[in-house]
Amino acid sequence: MPTITFSRLNPDKQEKIIHCAAEIFARNGYTGASMDSVAEAAGIAKGALYRYFTSKKDLFIRVVDFLREDINNYAMQFLDNHKDINVFDTFRDWVVSIYTLHERFSMHRDVVCNILYQEALDFKGEVLAKFGKLTTQYTRLLLQRGIARGEVREEVDLDAAAFIIDSVIDRFHDGVTMPFLDKGYALYQQPQEVIERKADQLIAAFRRAFGKAGYQQEQLALQEQQPANSMHRSAS
């Protein structure tokens, strides 16, 4: 953890040090990163860095917390921006934003992947646990919102539903960006219109699985009315 000396630094300087460290951990992994390289990138003396963090592990844990806070702030803002939007449409917007998310959180992903796939560290579990529950937490909040508004069935097991939806969306996003995880659904590097069409299929499955029966019937009725209304307008 950071020392009191670090906490007394100007917030902009704190963020610069942590951001430089995050870039180096993302690029080189934990083992390949050094306090020397972080100090050089941040434009400070190595001795000063050790006054802020007593070890590379302490610095890395602070980087992980910083990245987690960044993801959390982004996700909570996303939920707030969608507070008046149907929960299933909100899930759809999250699914189809994959290319934006991929670019926005590329450094975060690289830090986690280096730990997940490359590093044999005694604190790997501690690090991964900080990220593991994040997206499931947001999914659960959305489902609770949907239940309160009559969009999701009250009897849905929130933990199970959040796990299923979160896992499927994660796999969908992985398939778009990583060819070895795109198994059978032809997602990898597809154009946005294809991603949106396949996302619609995915969300339709979520609606059937978790949507409230009355709500489902209402939506189906509206969909049936749309072609009829279109024909009526054309005839007139």
TrEMBL record:
Residue ranges of domain HTH tetR-type in the record: 11-71
Top-level lineage group: Bacteria
Residue ranges of DNA binding: 34-53
GO molecular function, one term: transcription cis-regulatory region binding
Cited InterPro entries: DNA-bd_HTH_TetR-type_CS, Homeodomain-like_sf, HTH-type_TetR-like_transc_reg, HTH_TetR, Tet_transcr_reg_TetR-rel_C_sf
Keywords (A to Z) from UniProt: DNA-binding, Transcription, Transcription regulation
Protein name, UniProt field: HTH tetR-type domain-containing protein
Source organism (scientific name): Candidatus Glassbacteria bacterium GWA2_58_10
